[in-house]
Write a structure and sequence with these properties.
The complex is a heterodimer of chains A (317) and B (200). Chain A is built from seven helices and 19 strands. Chain A has 317 residues and is α/β, with parallel strands linked by helices. In chain A, strands 1, 2, 3, 4, 5, 6 and 7 form a seven-stranded antiparallel beta sheet that branches. The model of chain A has no long low-confidence stretch (mean pLDDT 92). Chain A folds into three domains: 99 residues, Beta Barrel (Elongation Factor Tu (Ef-tu), domain 3); 108 residues, Nucleotide-binding domain of ferredoxin-NADP reductase (FNR) module (Rossmann fold), CATH 3.40.50; 86 residues, Ubiquitin-like (UB roll) (Roll). Chain B is α/β, with parallel strands linked by helices. Helix content of chain B is 20%, strand content 28%. A five-stranded parallel beta sheet of chain B has the order 3-2-1-4-5. The model of chain B has no long low-confidence stretch (mean pLDDT 91). The chains are: A alpha/beta (317), B alpha/beta (200). At the A-B interface, loops of A face loops of B. The complex binds FE2/S2 (inorganic) cluster. The site of FE2/S2 (inorganic) cluster (FES) has 14 residues of chain A, from loops.
Chain lengths: 317, 200
Amino acid sequence: MSVLNVKVAEVEQVTEVVKHFTLVQENGEPLPRFSGGSHVVVSMDINGRIHRNPYSLMGSTANTDSYHISVRKQENSRGGSVYMHEQVKPGSTLQITYPTNLFAISKLGRRHILIAGGIGITPFMSQISDLNRLGYDYELHYAYRSPEHAAFREQLQEMCGDRVHFYVDSEDERLDIPDLLSHQPLGTHVYICGPVPMVKALHLHAKNLGWPDNHVHSEEFTAPPSGDEFTVELALSGMEVTVPGDMSMLEAMEEAGAEPPFLCRGGACGRCELEVVSCDGVIMHNDHYLSDHEKAEGRSIMPCVSRAKCSKLVVNL
Amino acid sequence: MERGYWIRSKPLYDSLVWKQHATGHVVIAEGEGGIAVLKLFQQMCPREPIKLLFADDTSATKKYADIITKLVPEGLQVCESGEAVLAALREQLPDCLMGTQFYVAGSEAFIWAVIEELKVYGVQDRNVEKELSGTLARSVYCVHCKTTDKDVHHSIHQCSGCGRHLFVRDHFSRRLGAYMGVMVDAEEPGNIPAAEEIYP
Ligand code: FES
């Protein structure tokens, strides 16, 4: 996968736990254009081990001088966000992938409802610049924990005017999803990015109200859960890779020198799907891509987030 | 005929069945689609409000409006013609909310005329229940002179616009609601196979 070498031009502390990074191309050239809702995957070398985390691009899609990403510090995660917060300074260099978009605004929609929970606001920042430019009808509903966590509130007010609504949990303000969905005109699309329970609730309410699946869009970047160590055998190359408990199967294969495909690294896009040749235990599916039926069959695995509880897993790679 | 369903653009039609989750239901039918409506109303009716727009095919001997009127007391609007059904639908759509389910039955030309109306309101055709009723007659779009002829029953059709003999393909344009017709004797002028009635 082709990479871009970027330099950190600026770091801004947005809230206690969120930092905003401005990235420019190391060679001074403009960055590739992107569409609202795109993300890049940032590679970090942490003590000799490569971590790759996806982050949404949040700047204006008209601006190709710099990319903007925001990172929430997750203390009990595997270190990627902590590294970004503690080690990455203005002048640091990073490698990122070209932007890909798995969360684009539907061109068929007549009205767009955007729902953000916490740091899930980031993909909407670039979508809003697209929506404003195209003159589309939209509304943004942004829920966050407390006034200290109100990342980008002022900027959003400026960008969206009266189209934005805020819900502050600590002040007992709640977004009523069923109510919001129950009075939308035909042709409305809804988009959500936020914590898993919130995304699940939206899907459930939309389904119960008869919204077709293709009008409901969500972006969840699941961080790969840790688990037990196991061994993967790559049938085509004959390679054997040990996946440590705190590493994803995709990361372990990459570290061993294999080049498996990926796009979202969050179990959403399906790009990394691998055929399972055999497994002497159980596969722990953590993706949102395979159907329940396919998960039960166990013939595929999404190595970016899923792993196995077994001694040996053989995949067709 | 290009047999079977391997052509992706060829639409699939099913039997109308109420959708379980909805905020409302709108049923739109014409002519032989009346049978599909009667079958639909034999199923357990949903609790949400139902609207039914129907027109008999005035030229056909079989009429359904009377039976439907007896069976569907509420929400029924019987119209004069298929055109009038489309006009009535156009009036309803601005008030419809997300979660409204649409059910269409009738000839293929009617089904796609309805879908064109729905598309204006951002309803995608794959989310619409469709039942093809009565005739398999095709609308045929001449790729040479861009004329669309309705009610084509034969495998070879002489275009009313340019007079070319067209082979009626299975390639279907959702935008035009018609199958593509391509000149059958382009390679060997005058060599026109016999037209067979395969879309009764
Ligand atoms: S990379 Fe997208 S599902 Fe694994």
